[in-house]
């Protein structure tokens, strides 16, 4: 199975939990260029792919009114903010998949709930079509609107809860679970091991 098909299989569960372990750092890296983008940070400042060139970054994908995995994913990012080194060449980047609702003001309030340092952790919004294409075509992440007539508030979208690690050249090198698996007795332990692998990957990429 080639790397593209492997990643599709890993992400096919979307918002649902997966019992599969995240890739170990000893496995071959992924090689998916993020490509160009131009979005707006919660501060109102423009952020492009060029602004992240030369930096290692960890990407997450959420929407602020999400009642599913998003708070867990953002809590994981907050944990990474606390545990990864504070360096100018290392960033956390959260993309909203619900930009019509998630304005810079809404993202600012949401980010404050997780003590997100604006110098280290960016929150990006922009045109919905462009963000969804960025996620599906570049990050190979699942995202779609929930069109079920009985959808409840907070269930507006289905999307992957995985994190992507991007190298200094803007290439996705690995993906990891963004939250503990549901209904698994050793979920917390496995998630800690997952985050240890993520942090090891970041450390390796910073040294490149």
Explain what you see:
It is a single chain. The protein has 208 residues and is an alpha+beta fold. Helices cover 33% and strands 22% of the residues. The chain has helices at 3-11, 49-52, 70-83, 104-113, 128-138, 187-207; strands spanning 32-33, 38-41, 46-48, 56-62, 90-96, 121-125, 143-145, 157-159, 162-166, 171-177. The strands form two sheets. It has an eight-stranded mixed β-sheet, with helices on both faces. The protein has a two-stranded antiparallel ribbon with strand order 7-8. The chain is globular and about 50 Å long. The two termini are 28 Å apart. The model is unreliable at 1-25 (pLDDT under 50).
Q: How many strand elements?
A: 10
What ranges have pLDDT less than 50 throughout 5 or more consecutive residues?
Answer: 1-25
Shape: globular
Report strand %: 15-25%
* Biggest sheet: strand arrangement: 1-10-9-4-5-6-2-3
The proportion of residues forming helix, as a percent range, comes to 25-40%
Q: What Rg is obtained from the alpha carbons, in whole angstroms?
A: 16 Å
Largest sheet data: 8 strands, mixed
Distance between the termini: 28 Å
H/E series = HEEEHEHEHEHEEEEH
Helix count?
6
**Average pLDDT score:** 87
State the secondary-structure class.
alpha+beta
